[in-house]
Amino acid sequence: MVWNLASWGRPFRLVSPLLDCSSPETTPVQIECCYRFSAVLTGSGDVCVWWPCWDAIGDWYYDAMEESDENESTKAIVPEGGRVIPCHTLEIHEDPVKLPALPDLPELPGTGLSEEERGKETKLIKIAVFRFRLIGLTNKGHVLKMDDLWTANSVWCYVSESALAVWRAFLNCDAQLPNYSEIDKVKEHPVFRAITGDDGHERPPQVELLSDTMLITHVSYIASMSSQCRV
After folding, report:
1. Residue 203 belongs to what H/E stretch?
2. Measured between alpha carbons, how far is residue 177 from residues 30, 77, 157, 185, 195 in Å?
3. In the 8-state DSSP scheme, what is residue 132?
4. Which of 109, 142, 187, 193 could disulfide-link 138, Cβ–Cβ 3.0 to 4.6 Å?
């Protein structure tokens, strides 16, 4: 079940056939959120997004809160001298926005995938969000991003060397990873290497790669990494 805690005392459950746990294809397997939007990755590799405090769901939510506060039995207001916020749950039956399908993607070198794995359908297996952007990692090692998720009109962009200059300009920092989808090149970045300090002692990497299948996002770097990592 997908619950939204947009405010204390008023959690609401999003109910939709797109997030229906009766089917493996529509069962949520990962959920991420940032300031403006929330995103769910389903078993089929689809990504659904919504804006809990804006758009149609946001309008419904505020109307439902106002209606609930008019009823003494469903108020979510701490009484004077109280220490517990009363919790009254809500349900919204509304479809989130299903993001577009992935674009055609190249076959990547050095992934270590078997012939059977390479022959499978390319789909997203992990997502991450930050600011108003969404990052996705496929089962074949591709890293994609979707910009400007203010609305539902964005498209997937394959993160390659050509996108690096634009990415740097947006974040205004130098800790960038060219060739995001190529693990050997990702590992060359200084953040993954031990360094020797001014005192002559070696310091461990800021991030240690334990395998090659996790996606991590940060305001200053993006990498495909292991789901087990030390930062």
Report:
1. strand 202-203
2. 25, 47, 16, 8, 18
3. T
4. 142
Measured CA to CA in angstroms, residue 83 lies from 8, 20, 79, 116, 213 at distances of 13, 36, 8, 57, 44
Instruction: Name the pairing type of β-strands 97-98 and 47-50.
Output: antiparallel
Residue 203 in tokens? 């310091």
Do 219 and 142 share a structural domain? yes
**Which pLDDT tens digit goes with each residue over 88-109?**
888 889 899 899 889 888 888 8
Q: Are residues 126 and 175 in the same domain?
A: yes
Q: Which of 32-36, 178-182, 188-192 has the highest mean pLDDT?
A: 32-36
Listed as own residue / partner, the contacts of 33-37 with beta carbons closer than 8 Å and 24 or more positions apart are 33/129, 34/129, 34/130, 34/131, 34/132, 35/131, 36/132, 36/149, 36/150, 37/129, 37/132, 37/149
Q: Please count the residues of the chain.
A: 231
Structural domain span for residue 217? 112-231
- Considering only residues 8 and 161, tell me which one the structure prediction assigns the higher pLDDT: 8
Contact yes or no for 159/222 (Cβ under 8 A): yes
Contact 16, 26 (CB under 8 A): no
Q: Tokens at residue 17, please?
A: 């056939």
- For 150, the token pair is 């203010």
Q: Which two tokens stand for residue 157?
A: 């962009």
The domain tally of the chain equals: 2
- Shared domain for 119 and 94, answered yes or no, is no
